Amino acid sequence: MSIGGILAQLLAIALALALAPLLTGWVNQWRAWLQNRRAPSLLQPYRVLHKLFNKESVVADTASPLFRIAPYIMFGCMALACGIAPTLSTDLPLAPAADAIALVGLFALARVFISLAAIDIGTAFGTLGARREMLVGFLAEPALLMVLFSASLITQSTSLAKIVETLTHQPFAIHPSLAVAGVAFTMVSLAENARVPVDNPTTHLELTMIHEALILEYSGRHLALVEWAASLKLFAYSCIGLALFVPWGIAEAGTPFAIVLAIPVLVAKLAVGGVLLALIETINAKKRLFLVPEFLTTAFLLAVLALLVHVLLGA
């Protein structure tokens, strides 16, 4: 475990904490522009977090300690997930112990706690949101695992750092299995981050909302942590997609010069990805809830198809 690797690991987590709200603001800006609306400020997510952290947290009398600790666990899981994903360097101390399976486990752990907290408070909306969230997770997690396994078959490793190192050293080629897996990953990412067409992050209509129903009873610093964790989750999924499908530009050593060069490359790739996400949300309509299982089942079948393409064709 090198000093450079430890510094790269800490810098990756710090960068995720700083840039995650900015990515959310960037997506919101482009979504407004593409819909011919006046866009909010790029720094609006930071202002919202600052306002919430300075407000008092109001907790119901019927809430158990689980309701209070769930935002902290969710935030910690998302921060750790951003540390596992190779954003700046592949020389990460967490890489040997935390592979793709552990990464999916972190997402599942955060989902379980926030869903239990929503049920714990005893409101109808919280229970409704928890059921929908668990349904989405039940269908999205196997598809995400299949996508990660497709990449691991090419590189013979489930470590994201190893996958990046292997893909960057290979001659440039279009892998049909990765191309199909990329479509499946995009569909899973939209569902996991409560984006259109699965969910609308700006709605409070009780018949359609999923993520917002989970957090209606939170306020103050608890709500700030949940919103920050949601931005971190979007950042983590974006970095996972970049590591799997656009791995070039990530430093392979923990040297300061290589990491400094990797920062603008990462920001540029995230900027392009944010525009594409806003475009996808603009050209698609919100699906009805009973069509969401079909959407995620399609993603799972595409991920399995990617595995079969690699096994049968070796590509």
Short structural summary:
The chain has 315 residues and is mainly α. 45% of the residues are buried.
Q: In terms of per-residue confidence, which ranges show pLDDT below 50 for 5 or more consecutive residues?
A: none
Number of helices: 11
Please, what is the average pLDDT?
90
Shape: globular
Strand content: under 5%
* H/E element order: HHHHHHHHHHH
Rg, alpha carbons: 19 Å
Word description of this protein:
The chain has eleven helices and no strands. Helix 5 (124-155) runs antiparallel to helix 7 (176-192), helix 5 (124-155) runs parallel beside helix 11 and helix 9 (220-245) crosses helix 10 (256-283). The mean pLDDT is 90. The two termini are 34 Å apart. It has helices at 3-34, 44-53, 65-84, 100-120, 124-155, 160-169, 176-192, 211-214, 220-245, 256-283, 292-313. With 315 residues, it is mainly α. The radius of gyration is 19 Å and the shape is globular.
List the main descriptive attributes of the protein structure presented here.
315 residues; mainly alpha
Secondary structure layout plus pairing:
Blueprint lengths: L2 H32 L9 H10 L11 H20 L15 H21 L3 H32 L4 H10 L6 H17 L18 H4 L5 H26 L10 H28 L8 H22 L2
